[in-house]
Design a protein that fits this description.
99 residues; disulfide bond; alpha+beta; sushi; 6 strands; 2 helices; Sushi_SCR_CCP_dom; 20% strand; four-stranded antiparallel sheet; Sushi domain-containing protein; two-stranded antiparallel sheet
Length: 99
Amino acid sequence: MFERTINFIIFRIACPALNTTRTQTSNWHFDTQVVDHNTNVTLTCAAGYWWQPPSLSGHPNTTKTVNCGSDGNWTPALGDCVPISMNILRELFDIVSCS
């Protein structure tokens, strides 16, 4: 009987560099220097900004953890932090003004 060896080659696509993906309107930063596949990176919103939507408990999410997958994509999608404003708070909590 013959034995056969099967070798697999796995190609991994690099995720886009966070420092070039981030724009002036992203309003987030990160502290990780090296990003390999299956690495988690925490993105932190600038002061006065949060990720949309807020958490289910209504608290602003100011950090988000993303993962560099072997397919070359960040999961979940990067997106932008948005300014925390009273209009957003009114929509979230059905705040009504007292007149």
